[in-house]
Fold these 4 entries.
Entry 1:
Amino acid sequence: MKTMSHTNHPATERQAVKTCHVCKGARFYYLFSISDYRVVRCDDCGLMFLNPQPSDDELTRIYDANYFLGSDTETGRQAVSEIKQATARLYLAETRRYSGLQYGRLLEIGCGDGDFLVAAEDEGWLVTGVEYSPTACEKVRRRLKNGQVHSGELAQAQFPAEQYDLCVLSDVIEHIRDPLVFLREIHRVLKPGGTLFVATPSIDSWSARFMKQKWMEFKTEHLTYFDRQTLQTALAKSGFRDVIVQSGWKILSFDYVKMHFERFPVPVVTPFLTFITRLMPRKMRLKHRQIVASGMMVFSRKSEVTPQPVLSVVVPAFNEVK
Ligand SMILES: [Zn+2]
């Protein structure tokens, strides 16, 4: 969930985006600010992003050891973990429907506390995780039976090419400084015909339309805001084919949603949720519900055959008339 890109910028400096990460356009217009970060839209492709992006230091402060949504009690943590694993099983089932593949080698980037990997391993996948937080990595290593976890960023792991049948990005791509560079690296490590599954907040979602600038996904660590169009373009430009976009289902409970909104408060919504969950019986608060949330689920694949570079030959046209 937390992945940053290595850059040459000083760690304290906010990083200006000079050209759009998706289309390379350079005309952006200002939309609004969250805290003191400007949200802009690319005039050419419509991609929304923070500009400038927060500094490495600012992101490190956000991604402290307590970043992953948890609970103060062991029972609470267990409930959160069960919800995340239920969402993982839902994502795996949808991915299986798309690819037809039952199991194989799975890579999850930004694996957090490892709930997705644990669920995937239980279903027979051979799992590998990449996670920026060393604390989270240690925890994941303890939870997996055979799976591996790399601490750091994807590029640092230097995986050999064409290793994985499935790559999973669950609430990750919005955190990446340069999404296209990142997607191209994923494309490289996937086997020909391999599947990429992306879950990310979507500007097209009902919650984004309803909450507008108060949308809970507008936050400092979310550097890029995709919609269906811009994510499809980004995937196509990174070499992915057969893109299918669906509304993002998640498994949630009232308790989990309330905890999220208490952590990232939104006027009216947070007090309302706190109020109604107080009135509910415990069983109802903890019940798993499959709902369309703020995101989209996007499936795509790497071509079976690696396209050969097109050889362009310039044929000199000359006149043989003497
Ligand atoms: Zn653009």
Entry 2:
Amino acid sequence: MSQPDLLSRFPRVRLIAGPTPIQRLDRLEQLLGDRRAGVSIWAKRDDFMELGGGGNKLRKLEFLVGQAKSEGCDTVIAIGGVQSNFARLAAAACAKTGLACELVLAQMVPRDSSIYQGNGNVLLDRLFGARVHILAKGEDASKFATDRASEITAAGRKAFMATLGGSTPTGCLGYVDCAFEIALQSAELGLDFDQIIIPNGSGGMHAGLAAGMVVAGKDPSRIRAYTVLSAENASLLATVDKTNVVLALLSKSERVGPKDLEISGTQLGDGYGAPTPDMVEAVAIVGRSEGLLLDPVYGGKAFAGLLSDIQNGTISPGTNVLFVMTGGSPGLYAYADALNSN
Ligand SMILES: Cc1ncc(COP(=O)(O)O)c(C=O)c1O
């Protein structure tokens, strides 16, 4: 069975037009000068998609909305943090595919400024027509969402529950596909990327990419992830489990263990959504050299990890590195206070 055929049996709606580009960041390389130690830095532009401002969650939503439609659901209930990119893109995907959308947004980050609570992703959620439920601190998002689903059922409709980050095994299939896409583009470019750099939040992107690489016969430890949500070991164990569940969903017999995946906890700082000076610097460097936007919660921290690991030699001099730009730039507006200090 060919690699794309492997995914064809899963219901899917198309939200992305085609492969996202891979571009060399040559202006950034120039700006870094000796700091880049001869490393070639490329970007996979998963922030460059036509729907809802784009971002990695659209890949998951192609399969999640596909599943919702195949189950006859008319409403998607998505759970996330207040500035969830997944929630924003779920709202956009529902608008595009004619589903109702309800967002249950929990207080996952201790930031109560009006820009954090009302600008950035939340502003766009409402513009995309979603019904937004912003919970109070400590309120149980799963319970709230389950109660809403029961009310929707009682009204004769059917809700599909999309839990945190869309990182169910079905959602992860979007990044299995991305692994195949990267393999094809690498062959076209005549390049073998030594490292693929990503942030790891709920771990679905990492698990999907890792499973896709295993299926494609490539070493998943080439993916170097920086956790932005859980502690290093917890993130590793959860991502190993997720990868194996995705492999099982694909009816593959291969399995991975903790030694097969690379996750670094060096960029977590004070935890999920907490800005770090290195993140602020990374966002500024990429903006000034390439005119590209990283986000403050995921890509900014992962890029800070990339720069730091080039400098300390963890990423070997002279290698080819692919940084997956995952979108999330609306979050910049919610962090204006942290970013303006630079
Ligand atoms: C912009 C962005 N990048 C990366 C991630 C991390 O993806 P995952 O949750 O699958 O680890 C997220 C998750 O919300 C995101 O919004």
Entry 3:
Amino acid sequence: MRYKTHIVSSLTAGAGLSIMLNYPFHIGYVIGICFGSLLPDIDEPRSFIGRRSFGLSKYVKQRYGHRGITHSLFAWMLVSFVFLIYPSFLTIGISLGYLFHLIGDLFSIRSIPILAPFKPVRPTLPFTYKTGSFTEDILLYIFTFLLFYFVFVYGKLYPYLIQSTVELVSSIIHILMDYLKTISN
Ligand SMILES: [Zn+2]
């Protein structure tokens, strides 16, 4: 999957979970899902996140290869550990986004080494798509439609999303103002 499809499909799954579990669709949760859904591709220097990783992705690719260890449940558990230590909207979002990325790639023809580093299996699922293909374009359209439907129509998630965004922006402004005050004194 390309990065756009990862972000949109993960947000759609996150919105679906929010509706099902009555979990707040907080801006921190949304940002976490976006970031988490890009994170596994840190093993590819040409990926969206790899190009912004200050050389880290080159190192990871050399050591583990693309779609290696970062695309396993083991890596997901390591990332989710952060959520266990610092539970927050952001960290649960990162954990979920990461997991949704793995599920997205699991359905691709190339699949992922889901049980690395313990077993080198790459399960092939009955429904697959080729990364960057027309099928993936169609999937992107379907997920985009579903996301808007979940957020604005079916789940009505947007009022809380807007409210939490306003709160976040105003607290950032407050912190900046306080900071400017301290340095000007
Ligand atoms: Zn990937």
Entry 4:
Amino acid sequence: MTKLAILFLVVLLAQAHAQFEDPAPKRIPPATLAKYYTDTIIQSESIGIKQCTDRVFKERQKTLANGGPSLGVIPTVGLGMAMLLFLFVGLFAAGIAQAFQMVRKHVYHDADNLDTAFDAGGKVSIGLTATTIVSQWTWSATLLQSSTVASKYGISGPYWYAGGAAIQIILFAILSIMLKTRAPGAKTFLQVIKARFGKRTHLTFCCFAFFTNLIVMMSLTIAGTAVLNSLVKDLSPELAAMLLAVVIGGYTLIGGLGATFYVSYFNTAMIFVLIIMLIVEVFYNPGNNPENPFGNSEAVFDFISCWKAPDGNKNDSYLTFFSSGGLVFGIVNIVGNFGTVFCDQAYWQSSVAAKPLQGVWGFILGGLTWFAIPFSLATTMGMAYLGMSSAQGAPLLTDSDVAKGLAAPLVAQKLLGTTGEYAILFLILMAVMSTGSAEVIAVASILIYDVYQAYIQPFRPGLKSGQCIICAKYIRFPGLEDSELCQCPSATGCEGCATDTLKRSKAKGLVKPHYECPIHKDYKEYQEQLLGYKNWCIVLCTFLSIPLCLFCWAVDLNLAWTYYFTGILIASSVVPIALSILWARATALGMMSGVVGGCICGISSWLFYASKYEGGLGASVFVKNTGEEFPMLLGNMMSISCGALFAFVVSILTRKSMTSEEVEAEWEKTRDIDNPLSPWVQVYKGELQLEEGDRFHDRPPLDIVIRKFRAAKITAYIAGLFFTALFICIWPGSMLSVGIFDLTQFNIWTIVSRGWAFIAATFIVIVPFYQEHQLNKDLKIAEMGAIPQSNGNGHAKSPIGNSQKHVVIVRQLRTVANRLITSVKGSTNNSYDL
Ligand SMILES: [Zn+2]
Ligand SMILES: [Zn+2]
């Protein structure tokens, strides 16, 4: 806490020295205004010309009488209040983290005890997986960029944002179940790449994973800085960048790792509360707010239909799917998001943490729930922005402010006043904090486990694939006697480890006695050291995010540019990553040529196209020309398609078709990925109904695992293909038959968007809670060994007396903590997982 307070003071002092200038009052030039302004209703040609309704003219006159239209977001939140908000968010996260640490310490007495007794990454339920995914996938960009495209392209913008980013999450269910089948012990997708394709390919993919984390971090901080600057008075970008880094760092460092999972539940719930608040304000206006010109969807429709869309929409209407800008954005969005989901370790970690069968449903339901955030939020905010612009007869923001993502904060400020401002600030901070710390942890994990442990200082240098890391004997080898193979027991069943655990749990004070188990002590100490390095790595990465923020601000990157560029840089790795777990025939050369070749094709075609615009690639117009829609579209398409093509073609050329034995041998490589301290067979033995062997690597043959996971696999494929077809083809295709919406069609559209938000909110708030509660109850009953007796109301009667109640409470706490730690281990990639 002291650290946070000191940082807070430093930041305040730095602020005192900063200089500010008064922003010059801006006006929209008449030529620009003419592109938007209209007195007649925009509708299908068949209906003919009609004047706007009286409602519209009345509002416009009112604006003129009140001193003319307003422009821009007015920063009204005082710096002091903003600091308090920061402090509050920090304290809130720290409080949760502290509570978590207390449970660890006082209920378990020793953290190490947990690692051995409850090491069971892979037991998170459907509801929690969905919550974690929704929270991770909700970037600050999700809240801002979706509203931006809504205000530029109309109704098709939010749809493309939501549909084009939900399918990746749903399709990820397929990768998730295949990972559980073919590499159940893997904790990162990079481990699979390393096991199958070797060092060079592994390092290349590590680079792309870094790029992904870097670019996600950039778009997070750009969006965060833009919103902070627009709403908080006298806040310089430098200070905003530093504050964001402090929030991310503080949260990650103060035991925040452990609280990630709790915070994501709160975070998701908060987001939905805010969305519903805004929907209610815009469509129902319960407080009869005089600033709110709407109040029902008919009013929203009247205003929007009297406002022109200059960006290539059919008949200049915002209420149509015939929008070239919307479509280009849709395609780029789909491509880029494939990259940010498949290539970001954070989603693989969620998949690893979930139970195999529940994980599939977690991803599907998580994707459908998340769909509501951009779809409902941006439909509401974007429509409100356009309607309010129409109501005052002039755009509320300049084009560059729209590109920065300020439409959503502006609407919140105008409609909800101070409440709206704080709500947006809080939302953005939560999004930056949870996603930012996940990215920092992901980078640190890759650095330590995939680079340091693998190449710089491995536990056993020169270890060949198929050898046991503890005794260096082969796990299985044709022609070798059983006695010459590794006989290492798993740490759970090991006597030496049990003694160690007992001794360490009794020791008081910070320094724990050394491990003494003759088999596992060296490996355990090595892993503990790695964990220490990883924490330092997290500190370092957090500090590096400050110069990153400042760099983005200095070169004037905007959110839209970064968002469009993402796919060009990383989308070439999407298909190779999917193939690495789906296709046995893929080869190292195929993977490399796909990911590198695709990236080169994407970047060069993008730059080539951009150089055709006026000014070429000169420094003064670089961001503008390279940010044009069509170069970005071409670059994205080239990147993902060349990546896929090269990976396929080169793999087929470099490896002949395989026999079923060869295929099996290929997957044995990935099944070998395991942690002797918590082997995967133990984690899945309940779900797979397996017999446990003496040695940690005794495992069932592949076809048994395949058979057990068959239902989940079919579910994942059906849901993935169905929703992809629905969101990409069927839904938008059927919208094309509508043309320009009339009032009835607009009503149906907003009812769908509102309804989706209400259902998703109900699901995400209630289901995780209910499932955890249910699990607790089952565990309690099982632990007491009592058969539940019904007391007539359907409630189980507790067979214990008052004197034993505290025992039950402690047990209850333990089960909660148990599950917490389990999920944390999954999401933070703790040392014993590897
Ligand atoms: Zn061994
Ligand atoms: Zn041992």
